[in-house]
Amino acid sequence: MKKQKRAVKSKEQLLFDMSAKKFESMKISACWIARNEEKNLPRSLESVKGVVDELIVVDTGSTDGTIDAARSLGAKVIETEWADDFSTPRNLALEHATGDWIVFLDADEYFPEGAAPNIRPSIRLAVQRRKIALLINLVNIDIDKGNELIDSTYLCRVFKSGLHYVGRIHEELRTAENKPVDKILAVPDNVMQIVHTGYSSGVNRDKAARNLRMLLAELDSSAEPERIYGYLAQCYNGLDDFENAEKYARLDIERGRRDSTFASSSHRILINILSSADVSRLDERLSEAERAVEDFPSMPEFRAELAECLAASGDYARAVREMKQALRHYENYKGMEPTTFDRSMANVADDRLEQWNKLIGGQNL
After folding, report:
1. Which CATH number fits domain 224-359: 1.20.1250.20, 2.40.30.30, 3.50.50.60, 1.25.40.10?
2. Model pLDDT, residue 109
3. Whole-angstrom distance, CA of residue 69 vs CA of residue 345
4. What is the C-alpha separation between 336 and 171, in angstroms, rounded?
5. Residue from 240, 140, 267 nearest 194 by CA
6. How far apart are CA 304 and CA 320, in angstroms?
7. For the chain, what is the mean pLDDT?
8. pTM for this model (two decimals)
9. What is the per-residue pLDDT for 150?
10. Residue among 3, 23, 20, 4 at smallest CA distance from 12
11. Contact indicator for 218, 167 with CB cutoff of 8 Å
């Protein structure tokens, strides 16, 4: 019987196999900061257990069973005092982490079934493309309303060791040189997602009040106060202080378009405030809609808002053109920035087009 020839691997394939072995042995640390999270933390820990190599929890003063729950699941617990600053305990966790890469979750975040095993392959792809962090789709759900979807955004939750956090709240990752992290790989939604329950109805307003206190403290002391203008706008808006929400939204917008997750938030806040105002602010609303479209040309909701403003000003021909653009962008939207434009809004847009076309004599514009 003729002996079968063994397939000879190319140099590239051999390197690929060696790389695969290297990444299988790479160490990954998962980190959390927590305080009175005995209900949420176990689910978060369990979602990565068996996928990562160590679990590290920095507890900032729990009085419930958080510490015992963490230890029972194999986590190393570091206890520290809370100092009204989220970056400090996060960086303490990073100091204790021994992994080559870090997964950093909040206690009320977890990987849904089937997602965590994709962490290591995604890191491998990031390294091959010379990236140092992963941008992952974070889905906010309201557990008080039957896990109703609130919205989603992309956040950096997996990154190479050697980075650190800055900011009392809404903390940001920085390099050792204190520069923003920009070598980031976006992971497709069908590969990996993280679920977040922390914005559920029952806790949202309380969080806004707490966040505002911390943001105002940072505003007084920070060398980069502009970093938190958008966050201040969100907090004031959540607390129905629309005067201050508008003030900080405008300050944030004047900084210009930035490549950060949910960068369109201040535009949304300002548009909602101006849309609720009387007709005397229509010119401001139109101006803001035009600025939002300029900064985010592919966002369908901003095109639709501009169309509504133009129609209110009597410019139905241009309103029709902008609303058609909104619908085209809705059908083809693939941007990273979360869009709120859904099928129901598209149906409203269709109705508006029919009405406006009648007003301009049914012209095909």
Report:
1. 1.25.40.10
2. 95
3. 44
4. 20
5. 140
6. 10
7. 88
8. 0.72
9. 67
10. 20
11. yes
Name the residue with tokens 């029919």. Answer: 354
Which range scores top for mean pLDDT: 221-225, 236-240, 286-290? Answer: 286-290
Please give the structure tokens belonging to residue 314.
């009597």
pLDDT on residue 206:
72
| Longest CA–CA separation in the chain, Å | 93
Domain at 22-196: CATH code: 3.90.550.10
Residue percentage of the chain with pLDDT more than 70: 87
Please, what is the angle between helix 300-312 and helix 265-276, to 10°? Answer: 30
Domain regions of the chain by residue span: 22-196, 224-359
String of DSSP letters for 24-62: HH--EEEEEEESS-TTTHHHHHHTTTTTSSEEEEEES--
Element (H, E) at 159: strand 148-160
Q: Is the pLDDT higher at 4 or at 255?
A: 255
The pLDDT value recorded for residue 14 is 42
Query: When comparing pLDDT for 337 and 235, which is higher?
Result: 235
Task: Please list the alpha-helical segments (H only) found in 173-264.
Answer: 201-221, 229-238, 242-253
* CA dihedral for 274, 280, 284, 289, sign (positive or negative): positive
Tokens 């085209």 correspond to what residue? 328
Q: Could you tell me if 365 and 317 are in contact, meaning their C-beta atoms sit under 8 angstroms apart?
A: yes
Q: Identify the CA nearest to 27 among candidates 120, 122, 135, 158.
A: 120
Structure confidence at residue 21 (pLDDT): 59
Q: Which two tokens stand for residue 118?
A: 């994709």
The pLDDT of residue 362: 53
pLDDT at position 267, please?
A: 94
Q: DSSP 3-state assignment of 4? A: coil
Reported confidence tier of residue 3, pLDDT bands at 50, 70, 90: very low
- Residue 126 contacts residue 185 (beta carbons within 8 Å): yes
* Calpha distance 241→139 (Å, rounded): 26
